[in-house]
Every structure is written in C-alpha cells, then in structure tokens.
C-alpha cells in the first residue's frame, strides 16, 4: 500500500490544491457530523422540559471554556422564552441550531467530494496519458511475448479499477477516521463508561474483516489478468474475422471466450462474496454494540440517574456516527485491495525500463552522406540465432536487395537497421556512427519504411499519408499519391483525400492500401528507403502500377529491398542471397544467374519466399 502511494505521489503533487481542500472540508464535515447529534440535545430538552434555567447572561472566560459558554448562552436564551410562556419560540431556536448544523455538515461534505473528484479524475487522466506515452516509447521487443489485450486491459480496465476503488483511501485516511475521533471526544465528555463500550467494537470488527479480506488482492489480480486475456480474444477475433469465418472456426473462438468469461465470473463471485460479508459483519457487530449500550445506558439513566435521558439519546446518535464510518472503512478496505492489485499491474508497465533508451550523449543525425555498414552482426529473438556473422555495406544511392526463403532473416535486417531491436553481436553504423549512438528519432527520420502488411489507421487518407510529414500541403499529398499511382482511385472517391480509410484500411483493396502506404513513404521523402516485401500483397495489375512508382522513388536514393518477386529486385545494384541467417551468394542479377547456384534456382521457381 505504502509503495503504491509513493508511486502515485508524483501524479498527486500536480493537484495538491485539491488534496488540501479535500482534507480541509473533510475535517469540517467530520466535526459537524459529530456536532449534529449534540445539537439535538437542546431540542430534546425543550420537548421534555429538561432545559436548565439560566437567568443571567454568561461571561466569556476564554477559548478553553467555549463549550460551557455556548451551552450557558443557549440555555439563557431558551430560558427567557420559556419563562415568558413562549415555548414554541424556544423550540424554534433549538430546531434552527439542528438544521444549521446538518446543513453545514452536508455542505462541507459536498465541497470535499468536489475536490476529490477533480483530484481523482485529474490524477487518473495523467496516469493514463503517462502510461500511453510509456507504451508507445517501449521497444517492439517488449511486446513480442505479450498479449495486446493484456496491455489494453491495463490502460483501460485497471486504471478504471483504480479510479473506482483505490482513491477511496482519501476517505479512509481523513473523513471517516476524523468523524470517529470527533465523535469519541464528544462521547467521552458525556460518559467515559459508555464510550469504552463503543471502543470495544472497532478492533473486534477490524480483526474479523482483515481475516476475511486476506485473499482479496490475489483473486483481484487473477481476475484482472484474465480480463486482459478476454480482451485479447476479442481483439484477435475481430482482427482475423475473415480467417475465423473462412475456416469455420467460430466455435473454437466462442469456446475460448466462454472459458475466459467463466473464469472471470468465478473469480468475481469469490471477490463479491467476501466483499458482501463486510456489511453484514459490521451490521451485526453494530447491533450488538447498540444493544449493550441500551442496556447499560438505560441503567445509568433510570437507576443510577447519572445521565439525563435526552443526553443519552444524543450519545446514541454519536455511537451511530462512529459505527457508520467504521462500517464504511470495513467496506472500503475490500475495494482498496482491488485497487492495489490494479495499481500493481499499471505500475508494472510504468516502471518497465526501456532497454533501448537513447544514450545521454546520443548524436542527432540529420543527413546521410556515405553508407550503411552492417558489420559482422549476430542476432536472436529467443534462443536460436536468426543472423550469424552477417556483413554487408549499402552505399549512398545504391539499391541492395535481400532474397531468400522464409526464416532466412531478411525482415530481421530491416528491423535492425530501423533499430526496432538491437544486435547481440557486431554493429550497424550510418556514416561511421553506430546506430546505438544515434537518437532513435533522428535515425528513423532518415528512413522510409513500407512493410508487407499495409498498416493504415482509422482516419482520413490525408492524415494517413501525411503521418511522416504532418505539415505537408494538400498539393504535396496529391503529388505523393500520383507517384505511388494512388491518385487515380483517390480522386474518384466522393471525399477525395478526406475519405476515411476505415478500420485498418478495410474500405480499400490490398493493392490500394499498399499504394497509400507507399505514398506515405514518398511524402516523407527520406534519404534511405526500406521496402519489406512491399509488393507481395499486390495483384499483377497493382504490382505493375506500383513498380514504376517504386523505381522512381528509389532512383538516386539508398534502398534496402526485401522481396520475393523477380520484378522488384532484378535491377538492384547488389542482390544478397540469404539462407538460415547467412549470406550464401552476392552480386547483381546477371552475375548470380551465371553462378548457377541458389539464386538461379529461386528465379526459376519465381519465388523468394
């Protein structure tokens, strides 16, 4: 708990004004909550003719005797009306005091809730923003073994759980305890003997409730983890809906979803059963305490006559004022357990270290002058190396093509040059600067990336194409679309470049989506272009339309092309043939064909998988 609060403090500091006012108004609320029951005594005294007659106005004797002064002054005013035969006016004064006290109590309670609302919403919005920034900044390797749904559950579900439960701790540490303290102070001024009976209730209830709640955090954590799995199933189902339906696999996904949903149901029921015990336990212990108070208090009023009946009624009200916050604390302690489990999952992401963070003295590289050097690198995603002692040089203005069967490590080269991952051995450098010593932002600013999967976002064509150059003019966007041979179909759309592409660009064909992706790279106009099987998703006609655009785009530009079609790479300056992470052949198209080796066989099969 302390650890979570310490982690939240930087977020809370921004809203410290609301913390101060929340505490201030909660203290006033607690004070007037206790005073509200004391204010009933004058009214009860008038009703039962128990008012102490005071004929002389009291004298002020300092702040230490303010209670006696206030009581005497009230009795003096009420006594005057009673002696004048006007008991109704005396009752009006007593009623006004009661109403004023309850009004102030609720007014301060409202102000306290307003400030905790601003605090809670502000902190959790900042927390969500910070978490999103962290999610975006963490390297791709962080997500290679994680479910997207689990990360989504943390930024959405877990932060909501914190909002709904964890921030109730502000009430725990201020309002409810303060209400109990103020009530106890007033109760001890009335009768220390009766007060001891009430005090016995609190530790007994606390012990019972803490024993019941021990497993809550563990169950809450399991439920939140399973919620992440459930979101993953939904996300995967929607992403791959064509495959699910095409393979009649609906029942498999339904079964997975139902299994996960049932697990959450069981865990939630376990949590709910224990949550629901807090109220009844508090209620039963409260009734027992009230019964004991009535028996013992009745003896003090009726037999020993050491306390007035009207005062005893007010005391019972104060007892209730203690039992209610004690019950609230017991219920809130369960919710806090849920919140702590959610907070643990949120801060696990926030505390994750970036294994590829820019070095403090990293270079800002704004130009590309000479060459990209890949020097004797080895790399593995898990246990087995996918690249072993791999070396090539890509000179400025030249095109290097990487070919080979699936799993040979072609796309890994693209990932490493963009520094989505770091090499395990060797180095990659640009103009003699190791990419590890270059800021990631400036490194990636030099590169344009077109991947096999046409990744578009649910936004307009304009915003998708201008992603790498947000300040691009409309004319520049149109020119980029023309170079990518995409303008022909875009201009025929009702809203032109303002047309929304739909979720993942599903409003367009595969070829159209790829041409928009190429237009995005064209508009960015980087000195280095990386094409990771950029034409593999295109049909023959679309490939013909795009091929000219790619050639125009690559002319006088440094390019690394990963391809499986001959048309894409036959004009490359150098073709590197890869097999199981190693270079087996290297040269231009004509040279490799004369070698009668792996490349020639691949060409004859017309497939560089």
UniProtKB/TrEMBL annotation:
It comes from the Bacteria. Residues 73-338 form the ABC transmembrane type-1 domain. Keywords: ATP-binding, Membrane, Nucleotide-binding, Transmembrane, Transmembrane helix. PROSITE patterns: ABC_TM1F, ABC_TRANSPORTER_1, ABC_TRANSPORTER_2. Residues 372-605 form the ABC transporter domain. SUPFAM superfamilies: ABC transporter transmembrane region, P-loop containing nucleoside triphosphate hydrolases. InterPro entries: AAA+_ATPase, ABC1_TM_dom, ABC1_TM_sf, ABC_transporter-like_ATP-bd, ABC_transporter-like_CS, P-loop_NTPase, Type_1_exporter. One of its GO terms (cellular component) is plasma membrane. GO terms for molecular function: ABC-type oligopeptide transporter activity; ATP binding; ATP hydrolysis activity. It is found in: Cell membrane. Its main location: membrane. The chain crosses the membrane at residues 20-41, 89-111, 166-188, 194-212, 277-297, 309-329. This is ABC transporter ATP-binding protein. It comes from Mangrovimonas spongiae.
């Amino acid at each position: 708990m302390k650890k979570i609060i310490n982690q939240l403090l930087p977020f809370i500091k921004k809203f410290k004004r609301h913390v101060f006012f929340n505490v201030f108004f909660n203290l006033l609320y607690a004070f007037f909550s206790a005073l509200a029951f004391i204010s009933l005594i004058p009214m009860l005294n008038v009703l039962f003719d128990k008012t102490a007659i005071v004929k002389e106005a009291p004298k002020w004797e300092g702040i230490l005797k303010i209670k006696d002064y206030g009581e005497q002054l009230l009795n003096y005013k009420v006594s005057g009306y009673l002696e004048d035969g006007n008991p109704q006016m005396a009752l009006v004064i007593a009623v006004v005091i009661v109403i004023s006290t309850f009004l102030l109590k609720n007014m301060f309670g409202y102000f306290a809730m307003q400030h905790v609302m601003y605090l809670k919403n502000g902190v959790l919005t900042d927390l969500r923003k910070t978490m999103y920034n962290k999610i975006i900044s963490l390297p791709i390797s962080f997500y290679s073994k994680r479910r997207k749904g689990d990360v989504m559950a943390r930024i959405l579900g877990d932060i909501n759980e914190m909002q709904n439960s964890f921030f109730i701790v502000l009430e725990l540490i201020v309002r409810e305890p303060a209400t109990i303290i103020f009530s106890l102070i007033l109760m001890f001024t009335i009768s220390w003997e009766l007060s001891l009976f009430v005090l016995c209730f609190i530790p007994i209830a606390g012990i019972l409730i803490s024993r019941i709640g021990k497993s809550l955090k563990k169950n809450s954590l399991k439920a939140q983890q399973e919620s992440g799995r459930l979101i993953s199933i939904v996300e995967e189902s929607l992403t791959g809906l064509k495959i699910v339906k095409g393979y009649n696999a609906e029942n498999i996904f339904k079964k997975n979803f139902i299994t996960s949903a049932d697990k959450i149901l069981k865990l939630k029921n376990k949590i709910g059963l224990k949550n629901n015990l807090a109220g009844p336990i508090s209620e039963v212990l409260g009734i027992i305490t009230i019964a004991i108070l009535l028996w013992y208090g009745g003896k003090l009023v009726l037999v020993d006559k050491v306390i007035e009946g009207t005062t005893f009624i007010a005391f019972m009200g104060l007892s209730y004022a203690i039992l209610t916050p004690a019950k609230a604390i017991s219920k809130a302690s369960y919710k806090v357990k849920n919140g702590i489990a959610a907070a643990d999952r949120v801060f696990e992401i926030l505390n994750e270290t970036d294994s590829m963070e820019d070095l403090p003295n990293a270079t800002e590289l704004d130009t590309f002058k000479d060459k990209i050097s890949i020097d004797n690198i080895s790399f593995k995603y898990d246990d087995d190396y996918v690249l072993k002692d791999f070396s090539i040089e890509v000179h400025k203005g030249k095109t290097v093509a990487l070919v080979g069967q699936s799993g040979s490590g072609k796309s890994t080269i693209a990932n490493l040059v963009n520094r989505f991952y770091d090499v395990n051995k060797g180095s990659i450098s640009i103009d003699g600067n190791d990419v590890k010593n270059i800021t990631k932002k400036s490194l990636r600013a030099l590169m344009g990336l077109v991947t096999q999967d046409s990744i578009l976002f649910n936004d307009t064509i304009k915003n998708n194409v201008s992603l790498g150059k947000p300040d691009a003019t409309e004319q520049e966007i149109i020119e980029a679309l023309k170079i990518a041979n995409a303008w022909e179909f875009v201009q025929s759309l009702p809203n032109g470049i303002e047309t929304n592409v739909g979720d993942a660009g599903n409003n367009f064909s595969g070829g159209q989506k790829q041409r928009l992706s190429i237009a995005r790279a064209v508009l960015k106009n980087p000195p280095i272009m990386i094409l990771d099987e950029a034409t593999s998703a295109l049909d023959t006609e679309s490939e013909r339309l795009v091929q000219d655009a790619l050639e125009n785009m690559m002319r006088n530009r440094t390019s690394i092309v990963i391809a499986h079609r001959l048309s894409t790479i036959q004009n490359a300056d150098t073709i590197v043939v890869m097999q199981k992470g190693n270079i087996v052949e290297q040269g231009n198209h004509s040279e490799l064909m004369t070698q009668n080796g792996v490349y020639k066989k691949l060409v004859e099969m017309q497939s560089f998988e």
